[in-house]
From TrEMBL:
Domain of life where this protein originates: Bacteria
Organism: Aliirhizobium smilacinae
Protein name: Uncharacterized protein
InterPro entries named among the record's database cross-references: DHS-like_NAD/FAD-binding_dom (IPR029035)
Amino acid sequence: MISSIILGDDLPPLPQELLVARDRGDVLFIVGAGASYPPPSSLPDFGGLVADIYAEVDAAMKGPLAELRKPKPLEWNKIPGMLTHQQRTELKFFAQHEYDVVLGMLERRIDGDPSRMSTLRRAARKVLERTVEPNSLHSALVRLGQRFGQTLLVTTNFDRLLSIAAKKDKYSDEAFALGEIPNPSRSTEFAGILHIHGMLPLKSQRGSTLILTDQDFGDAYLRRHIITSFLYDAARIFHLVLVGYSANDSPVRYLLNAIAADERHFVDLKPRYAFVGCDPSDARTPIEWQSRGITPITYDKADNHKALGKVLSRWSEIIPDKRNTSRVKKHLVSIAKLDPDTPEGQVGQSFIRYYVGRSNPTEQAELSRLLASKVASPKWLAFLNQLVRETARGS
């Protein structure tokens, strides 16, 4: 049996069980900073955020940090500049991608005791509030995050672009952060755009504190267990799907360690996935994710991760939704014109297998009429009859 579905040329195959789980309301997408990179959002990654914060509060570090973000940077201890020993130490940890540690050092250096409105945190808000324009990735994720008529998405992003995208497309856009986040459950009432690292204010809605520094992460993940408890519960109920993350980002390490730790305590965890951008010849990056108990769905990261936006948008266009009815029908018609025995027909078989598994008797009858029509290869009807028998036997 074909266990994956291909939604387009040069797009990664998606596990059929993942598509079926999403349609049943059993998937929880966890969205990272990578979703906010593409234009017109164009927000920075964590390293870029740190560099932009320094540009606001410590101009002497702007040039050295820009050097470290080059494709082939100088070693941190060879970068010229009149820097203090403290600044040099921060530069060292930036070079090691320990951005939460860097921010903790910076906040203690310029503010002393951290506070919700420290110089560091005001600068972070200023950087993150530069854009309020969502991109196509946000829109696709909002559509994929529909569960029982409500939007359900988890994000470690501070920005409110998912809420803006949801409102634009007339989906529910209610957002929660930190202590306001509801406990994971199978209930249809478990919903919202859930900012587990905090969120910015948006018009009349309140914002929250932001988890930025090593102290913040230690408090939330290790001392108070706010986020770890949420993830423990979510991993037993939902198939977790990570989008927009790099395995070596410091917030991701906290996130993945919390998810991986759950394996030691529970044997009934749902499968977990991550969309992973890498070069086609890169075999190491997928293994990094596999070693953490995550199934990687790899795609070519060329053209600023263009394939990620394409596959998520394409997936969002074929889910069971009244808005997708005409698109799905058009896709089925195009499949019917193929020979099932050709490579393209094999791809079409995978979609029809998935479609039959999710469809009701009326939809199956309409599909049968389509595959029996003059436009369709006669082989399709035989394939459908065999598939229906297999489905009835539960195979």
